[in-house]
Design a protein that fits this description.
It is built from 4 helices and 5 strands. It is α+β, with helices and mostly antiparallel strands. The chain has one domain. A 5-stranded antiparallel beta sheet has the order 4-3-2-1-5. A hairpin with an 8-residue loop joins strand 3 (50-56) and strand 4.
């Protein structure tokens, strides 16, 4: 799916460090989809350190999603970039939203 970068959410920084691409470990079960602009770069909200994204509403696994923004510090501290294939397996409701 073009136009997005996918990040897996972790409950803590320690869980994030323990996870790998092949074995993501103890994650929240939710994925953030960062929206890309025409130059294939994240779409930034003007004057802030936030990026437009599609994210989970609740903290339980495979939660419903909505369009929102995410602070860059949160991505760096609590999220790890993953492939679209992994994201589809972990968070199917995200792709139901993106494909409608």
């Amino acid at each position: 799916m073009k136009g997005f970068i996918f990040y897996l959410e972790y409950p803590t920084n320690k869980d994030k460090r323990a996870g790998t691409r092949k074995n993501p470990g103890n994650h929240s079960g939710n994925v953030l989809a960062i929206i890309l602009n025409e130059e294939k770069r994240p779409y930034w909200i003007a004057g802030t350190m936030q990026q437009e994204c599609i994210a989970a509403i609740f903290s339980h696994a495979n939660s419903d999603v909505c369009k929102t923004s995410c602070h860059v510090r949160y991505l760096r501290k609590n999220c790890k970039r993953i492939s679209e294939a992994q994201a589809r397996t972990i968070h199917p409701k995200l792709f139901q939203y993106l494909e409608q």
